[in-house]
Each structure stands twice: as structure tokens, then as C-alpha cells.
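This part of the workshop introduces the protein records we will be handling. Getting from the letters to the C-alpha cells is the skill we practise here. The record below serves as our worked example for the rest of this section.

…
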Amino acid sequence: MSSLPRVPQGLATAAAALGIALLALLLPVRSISQAIFAGSFALALIVFRVFGRLFGRTALGIPRLGPWTSVYLGQFALLAAALPALAVNRLAALVLGWSLPLVALVFAGAIAAGVRELRLSRTAPRLDLLALMGLGSVAVVAAIYSSHLSALGLDLHEHVAWTREILARGFVPLDEGNTGILADYPRTFHLMAALWNAAGLGAPAGPFVKSMPFLQNALAVLAVAEQAVELQAARGDGTRRRWEIALALAFYVYAFLLMPLVYPTGDLFGTPRFSSGGLLLLPVVLLAIARAHDSPRATLASLACAPLLLAWALTWNPVVAPMLLLATLPVLVAFWLALGPPRMPGSKTRAAAVGIAGGLAILVLAQDPWVLQTAGQRVASCRRILARAGLLTFDEAVQRGLATPREKSVRNAEPAPPCGDVRCIFALAGAAFRDALWLPLVSLRAGMGDLQRIALSPSVQQLRDAFKGLLPFRPTPMADYAGLPFVSFVAAGALFWAWSAVRQRRLDDAGSGDGGRLLVSSLVGLAAAAVALAFAAGLAAALNDQRHESIILAGYLGVAGLHVSLGFLWLPFSAATLVLVAPLFARLTSRAREAGPPRSRRAMVLANAGLLLWIALPLVARLNLHRPIQHRGFWGPLGIEDLRALRQVEEAIPASDGVIVPAEHANIANWEHWVLPSGDTAALLPYGERRYLFNVYLGASYPLSWGDLDKKLCSDDPAIRSSFLDRTGSRWALVRDLRAPDATAALHQPRMCSGRISLAALGAELPAVRERRGIFLFRIHRDSAGSAQPSR
């Protein structure tokens, strides 16, 4: 045995860390599909970590960032670096007629960054318990969302389709579905999701897009936690591992028990807004990095990124831009005053950083279809430039007869401005500001009322919603029964810090000085942010002129607290954790020094047992994630084998032909008109590669509206129906029916026009051209479409 070569300590540590990480990653896997996506997420994490470490080393001057901080910064570094590459790729598509897929661009950059990082990196590997808990948590979420590929709802249906389009083309398309009509939804969220998808080697996009609310908020939360660990470990008391354990447990409780990071809404609607936490917290994380690593460049980055961050926010979802000013800025100012980050570099470096950020911001805006659509509708010169590029705004397409007026709003009210002059606007703004200033007092009164009711007659109903009114943001998505423990924990930390300060105890020796400053600054910053958001919501409501767009803006600002809460409430929770565990750690350290070194054999056994429990802990989170586990999809489950069957069916359809699918006109909450694909077919359509009608407002369906379905395709006049099929080039009908025993049953089942007629009445005929896994493709015979009558 003595003749065997000894494995180097660093290599053994790296191998052990890799093995434990793989175990944490694969424990939640229950199927081949989940294993594929676990590998895809792992590869994406590695790619982003490479970019993040390179960014930290070259841009921030930090030789070693934490694993999750590297991933968190790496995704934004890649998002910024991709902008010029996407522009070149778009130019190649225009000139050469082809472009590289996004996977090729991402991995070309990742290989170059990885080679450079290997040359520069000299840091020894270590087992990070906080990183391990984060990996296990991501693995659980990835396993849940990859159990099937369905979009879960209308909102994600569109987001998955747009993400796939960017992934395939290697740039953000300006028009919708090759129609030449500018798209009307911003695309930075979809570009970020496509980068994650590409870094995972282009697996089906559904699980990546569904995971974005969790990923974006959890990455920011874990990055903040890693900076807190760095601040405490810098004191040199040898308790890094304890701080990792404390903050990792806090993250577990926060992400799975207190805040619904995994599943914030019923069918994951508002996904970009719920995924905006990572974007909004970026300056705060950079400031924490500057303080933890004593990095002047990180201090500069927290401010210099403002132009780029604002452009990203605007093209993530327009309502995120005001949240950046109303929520991020107050918290950033509070943290700046409390932490005292290093001074920024000289004026030349500052000017260069702002210039780079400004140039990238221009690229963001110039490559976003929503920005160009908005500019084209309002600025004549922009409209002329777009026309030279062969692009039309939607209004121009309607005027030329290439698109149907959307008429999405059910209530087409005439504008009724509440103010006719500037004085009136200032008066409404003053009233909104006064109401917002009362918010902290209103919250305190609500909390005192809850405390009184619980003390006098506690009940399950009161405990479920207790102290939610005391939280700074209204409304908040905090889980049932979570308000009481969250507020109690933060209040305990604040009271303990205040009591210690009054007694003039030196908490710095216990390692909680930074925790106290973080707690106070986070509470002050969140209070200011809550007032600012309440003011904006109140002013938007007061200035609402009853137009559809105005009502939507007021509504979005009114619920902005839902989106901000997911990530921002971690700041006081983690700070309270630092304050409350610091005395305990100080005592443990003191006792350990008095007792001397432990027995090595006993310590090894306890460490291994604890590590196994630590790896298994995220699996318990599945018990709290009943909604996504039980959700079979808004339309039905979908697997990789179903996508393979869809591709086989689509091979029979020429790319230029239109395909009719089951759809219905929905009046959602007597608020908006939508055309929705229906039944089992809808789950397939985000992954479709042909011209499907009617598929929400995607691709070939983009120029159409609910009137085309009700008044043309579903018209009682056969000539009108036949004319519509001719105009759209619809020669096929596709349906997925998992309950149909054969093609005849699938063809004759009434499923169109509010269930009045079947596909056969539209001219679809037997035999089925293709049939795979419940997917039936029929050819439409025009004479039959013209002569068939809808059944009453």
C-alpha cells in the first residue's frame, strides 16, 4: 500500500466536492427526462460560473468570487457580451441568409472564457455548504418543472415560444413570425431565458422558462448570502463553515417556507415581472461585493451599470423600469450609507465604465422589437427607417389590410383625463405623496391590531394572515402562516441589536456588527422603497384616464409589491440571521478553544453524517411545493417523446402552409378578448415550427384577432370561411386528442367555434395524413370547407 502514489490534497478535495455536488444534483431525479434536464441545468451553471469568475477577475479585480455570485454575475456578463455578437449574427442572417444558433455563440464564448480562466485561476478548491444547499434546491426545482414540458398557462405559452425563436435564430427577431410586422412585447427576459437554455445545450425550453422566477430571485438571494459570509469570515475567527450553515438554512426557510419563489402565482402568469428580482437587486449585490472584497471597481460597477440596467429593465417588462428607480435606488442608498464601500477609481476609469454601459444600453434598445414598435408609432423618422428595413408597425399593417385590428379591450372607453392642467397634476401628486407617507404608520397599526387579536382570541384564520399587513410592500406573496414567523424573526433581530447597542456591548467581537448595519439599512431602505412604490401606484391610479393602457399601468404598479417582495425581503431576514446567531457562534468558538481539538474519528463520523443530511434536506422542500407538483399543465402533460412525434408530423406540412388548430374566443374576466388554442393541442404549440392558426398572437397568428375566428373562420357563410382559408393559406388541420380512439373520432369531435362544429365541417378529411401519439394531421379540402354548415 505504501507504494501507491499519493493523490494531491487539492485534487482529492476537488474530486470529493464534485462527487457530492453530483449526488445533490441527481437525488431529486425520478425519470430519464428529469436526468436530462438536471444535466442541462448543471452545464448552464458551469458556463455562467466561468463567465462570472472571468468578469470578477477582469472587471472587478476579485480573484475569487463565491460559486453563486459567479453564476449570478455570469448571466449578466454573458447577456451584455452577447449584445454585439447578436448584432453581428443578425447582419449575417440579412447578408448571407443564415445565422449561427445561440448554442454555438454561447459555447464559443464559454470555451474562450474557460481557457482564460484556467490560465489565471490559482485558487484551491473547497467544499462550500452554502453552495451545496443552493445546488440541491435548484435540483429540486429543476426536477419538478422538468417532469413535463407543458407551459402551464397562456403567459408561459408565449414566453416559451419566443425563447425558442431566439435560441434557433441566434438573435432577437424584430418581426413576429416572419410577417414583417414588428413584435409588440419586449424580449430581454426571453433572451436571458434563451441564454440559460443555450448554456444547457438547447434542451426543450419549457423547464428553463418555468424556473426563471425561482432562478432569478434565488441567485440574487444566494449572492447576497455569500457576501455576508465573506464579511463574517474576514474577521479571521475560523467560523466560515458556521456562517455558511446559518445562511444556507435561512435561504432554505426563506425560499421554500416563507416566500413562494418556486411558484409565485396560480399558473405562472406575469413571469417576467416575477423574474425581475435578480435584475433589480444587481446594484445592491455589486455594492455588497465591493464591501466584502474591498473592491473599488465593484463600487464603480454598482453605479456605472445604471444605463445598461435601465435599458434591460425597460425591455424586460416596461413596468420593471420604474421599480428600478422606486425600489432599488432607496435600498442602494441605504446600503451605501451603512456599509461605506471603497472609493471608486479615478475619473478616467469612471468615464470609461459609464461609456461602455451607455453603449451597451443603446444596443439593447436598438435590438428590441417593442422599443422599435413604440418609437415607430410615435416618431415619423423612425417609421421611415423601419420601412426601409422592410418592417411595419402593427398600426401600419392594419391600415394596409395586412392585419386585423386587435380590439383586445372589452371596455373601449373614451379617454377621460382627470386633469386638464399642470396644477391639477401637482395636486394629485401631492395627495398621493401624503397618502404614501402614512404607509409605515398604517402598517404598524395593522401589526398592532394583529397582535391584539392573536393575544385575545387566536384562530387558524388569524394566524394564516397575521402580520402580513406589517410588511413594507403591499400586496405581498408571502405564504400562508409565514407572516408571523417572518416578522417575529426580523423583529427579534432588530430588538436584540437595539438592546445590545443601548448596553454598549461590542458586537463586533461576536461577528454581528455587519449584521446590525445590514439589518438597519435594509429596514430603512425597504421602508423608503415601500413609500416610493405606494406613491407611484397612487399617482398612476389618480391619473388613470380609463384607457386600456392606463388601467393596465395603474394595475401593474398597484401590485408591484408582489414582484419586489420575492427578493428584497431576504435582506432583513438574512441580516436578522447574522445578528441572532453571532452570540451563539462566539460562545461555540470560545468553548471549542477551551476544549481543545476534537477526536478525529468522532469528528469525521459526525461530519459525514451531517453532510448526508445536508444533501438530503432540499428533498424535504417537495412537501411544500404541492402546487407545481400537482399541476398537470394548463392543457395537459407533454414529454420529450411527444415533441419527437410532433416533428414527425410536421415533416408532412410545407413551411409556407397554414395549419388550423382547435381554438376559442375567450373573454377573460370581462376585461380582454383573447384567442386561445384549446384542448391537448395547445400544449404542443409553443414547440411548433409551422404556421399555426390560431395560436394566441404568435407567428402567423400575430396579424389575426378574435374577429377573424368568430366572424370569418366560424362564419355561417361558407364563402367567407373559404375566403379566410385561402387568404391564410390554410391547407391543414392539426389536433392532439389523447382520448380519441382513432382519427375518425378526432376529426368529428365538435371542438371549434365554441364547440359548435368539428374540423370536418371546416373541410378536414380522412384519412389522416400523419398520426403519432394522439397527434392527428388532416388535409383541408376547400370545396368541403365551402359547403359544410356549422351545427347549431
About this structure: The first strand starts at residue 658 and ends at 660. The radius of gyration is 28 Å. Confidence is low (pLDDT under 50) at residues 1-5, 507-511, 786-792.
